[in-house]
Amino acid sequence: MSLDLTATSIDLTRQLVDIPSVSGDEGPIADLVEAALAGATHLEVIRDGDAIVARTDLGRARRVVIAGHLDTVPINGNVPSHVETDEAGETVLWGRGTTDMKAGVAVQLKLAVELAEPAVDLTWIWYDHEEVAASLNGLGRIARNRPDLLAGDFAILGEPSNGRIEGGCNGTVRVRVTARGVRSHSARAWMGVNAVHGLAPALAKLAAYEPAIVPVDGLDYRESLNAVEIGGGVATNVIPDKAWMLVNYRFAPDKSAAEAIAFLEEFFAGYEVVVDDAADGARPGLDAPLAQEFVRAVGVEAGPKYGWTDVARFAALGVPAVNYGPGDPSLAHKDDERVPVAQITDCEEALRAWLTGAITA
Amino acid sequence: MSLDLTATSIDLTRQLVDIPSVSGDEGPIADLVEAALAGATHLEVIRDGDAIVARTDLGRARRVVIAGHLDTVPINGNVPSHVETDEAGETVLWGRGTTDMKAGVAVQLKLAVELAEPAVDLTWIWYDHEEVAASLNGLGRIARNRPDLLAGDFAILGEPSNGRIEGGCNGTVRVRVTARGVRSHSARAWMGVNAVHGLAPALAKLAAYEPAIVPVDGLDYRESLNAVEIGGGVATNVIPDKAWMLVNYRFAPDKSAAEAIAFLEEFFAGYEVVVDDAADGARPGLDAPLAQEFVRAVGVEAGPKYGWTDVARFAALGVPAVNYGPGDPSLAHKDDERVPVAQITDCEEALRAWLTGAITA
Fold this sequence. Notes:
Protein name (chains A, B): Succinyl-diaminopimelate desuccinylase
Enzyme class (chains A, B): hydrolase
Oligomer: homodimer
Radius of gyration of chain A: 23 Å
GO molecular function (chains A, B): acetylornithine deacetylase activity; metal ion binding; succinyl-diaminopimelate desuccinylase activity
Distance between the termini of chain A: 42 Å
CATH topology of the largest domain in chain A: Aminopeptidase
Number of strands of chain A: 19
EC number (chains A, B): 3.5.1.18
Structural class of chain A: alpha+beta
């Protein structure tokens, strides 16, 4: 079995979707990608675990990094792929990973071998473990092991964005808010202190809160503040002595994760607040000259990205980065994940035109 | 192995505690009780599953039913029993079932064989499955199969009451209160409806509620209304579409379980309210002449019982019933369950004096 990188980007998406690559099992697909690149003499290919990096070294004035992840969330009866017509009459490719994000990877792989003489030097990165714990993330591993491989003047992450350009991303913090009480039998509740009832003021404040919309570098970042889990209880006849909420704050990239945590600690003053997860966002970086040229070339309006993505890893290294790829992000991880084939072709053409055209920035 | 019913009630408590009889495993202890009663010719002994009923038939004007359960909650390193001196300097018998309620059963067994000529006819009942689902309860099974065996003018249930007389019991209803929402990614929360936030008004109302104290037949029943469990959440990055509370209402016996459920349905109007469990309480029945005489004979003030007990099964059959037994009810089910030996002897003496004295009621 091998990958045919000269196929259309639609066919290539199908080839990729039909190779299962759930996080932790990216070995076979990484092997095939590495083998398929072997004949492209304009590329230096470097393997790091199950991530593949392919670089031109043409001495261009600027370097653009273009990255995508090879893994998917678990398959649930949605592999192999098939082509169908959706309710809107559009031809779509259906299956796990079509949207998130093998269509984006297919476009990248096709252009990587095709573009032997791009207008900028290119670093292509296809990596593992994006859909699982941040500590396993392949791009994060490369950033730690070989930060030089991520260096560039601009980065494009192929996460699904419906073919729009989505700049930066909100940050995310998750905290556990805990109320304490004293157990007693529920028939003599006055001998105890009900911790679930103790959560009431915090939950009421949270439910009443209206999240802000924060303009950053010309884009409006809409925040979210939500309980994503709540729990408490010992037994059905016991007054609970502990109750908690997991609260997720998606905050605009005008503030750091540390500032977001400080906000939550004040918001939930009087409760135990323990940080469960925290990641800085990324400013959109659309003031970078290469970014502005890219937006002009693609010819669509840029918007903000709400979900946290690996663009933040580039931002942390000082590389302006945007999300740009085929597929509806709201279908990511859904069992009926699918991508309009026209978006795959549109992305391929826009990227090719920009990378082979006159880049003056 | 056999039980020696001529031992002191303290020794007999130890014998019973050292025979494991966790709910569902009452066969061996029921066999020993049945065998030990064989020589008591003044008793007719009837077995129903692992429950033993022993009756006198002396043609007395009144019949008193005295009952206790043979089972315990699971053992947790607290069998066999031992004698120790507690912090207050009292001699206590320590171990699973000492309080709930083998000390009470020991007093009953001892008096059952000893009192061949009581002042009233007696029906003694030792039964199984009290500590588990109500549908398995041995006393409930007898009430269905042989309600004639529960007939009497007055009933005494040997549940721990610290040697006080506790009349009737609160009822209990448990409902599941559910809020619904719409899932979305927590980075785009405005596309969903957060069901945990939807619980906020219900939880706030519950936390602010001040339960009533309701006088019934001269005793003050203190009610409780509490969330005993709360839950909700799909994943840490998903707006939850469902959240729920289990709410336990311990209500005074002036109202039925159906009335308590109606109260909760109105209290939580706008939410899904599903009944999880419901049991009527029991009015104290202390206006019954035999009950009044018993209270005078024991010489302690009667108080209300807050926890639901099987006295409600007698009340449902029209038999006034009280709780009266050695042991602190707040130690029931605790791993350091223990009973002051003096309370065992006091109960034995008070019951003997009343059952052999002049009962005129």
